[in-house]
Design brief:
By secondary structure, the chain is of the alpha+beta class. The chain has a domain of 67 residues: wza like fold. The protein is 22% helix and 28% strand. It contains four helices and nine strands. The strands form two sheets. Strands 1, 2, 5, 6, 7, 8 and 9 form a seven-stranded mixed β-sheet that branches.
């Protein structure tokens, strides 16, 4: 066996361990992502009324925050949770004597009123729609992923806080895609900045 094999193996393992340890640690000061499930203009949701298959199922919130629902005219749904919209539709159907005991469920398909900003060294910088399952890698993928100049090991994530301030942390997408760090859940209003590599 080649006498150089073991020294080379030890060197390769050392380099591998160094590489694994070179990722920045997960930030501890990033506020936990809060769900943002109230609807606003442009959002799309489905309404299911049990036993009424002929009723339209999909609705887009108008610019004034309303929808036009059959038999009950215009309903203002802006800033309501899905369960609140269900209760509103149920009540209006009962008040109008359309249905005696309607069972109504609402599920949001698109939160177009809530955005995540992705700027810097990505192929398609701009905004991506927020969903309650959106994570960092998902948002970057929707923005077309990195340009060749991207410093993917030094992503900056800025998140608004409850007191009106903001927190910015540095994250390594390389560590996430390599399975060394967990992906980061996002919240509506987050800004992801991909800086340029420093040569």
């Amino acid at each position: 066996m080649n006498r150089l094999f073991f020294p080379r193996l030890v060197l390769a393992m050392a380099l591998g361990l160094t590489a694994c340890g070179s990722y920045p640690p997960l930030p501890t000061n990033l506020p936990r992502a809060l769900p943002s499930t109230t609807v606003g203009p442009g959002d799309v949701f489905e309404v299911h009324v049990m036993g009424e298959p002929n009723l339209p199922k999909e609705y887009r919130v108008n610019p004034d925050g309303s929808i036009d629902f059959p038999y009950v005219a215009r309903l203002v749904v802006q800033n309501l949770e899905p369960q609140d919209i269900s209760s509103l539709i149920r009540r209006k159907l009962q008040e109008g004597k359309i249905l005696n005991d309607p069972q109504v469920s609402v599920s949001v398909k698109q939160y177009n009123s809530k955005k995540i900003a992705v700027i810097g060294q990505v192929t398609k910088p701009g905004s991506v729609p927020y969903t309650d399952s959106l994570r960092l890698v998902d948002a970057l993928s929707q923005a077309g992923w990195f340009t060749p100049l991207a410093a993917s090991n030094h992503i900056l994530l800025t998140r608004l806080t409850k007191d009106g301030g903001s927190v910015t942390v540095e994250l390594s997408v390389d560590a996430i895609t390599d399975g060394k760090r967990p992906d980061i859940p996002l919240q509506a209003g987050d800004t992801i900045k991909v800086p340029e590599k420093v040569f």
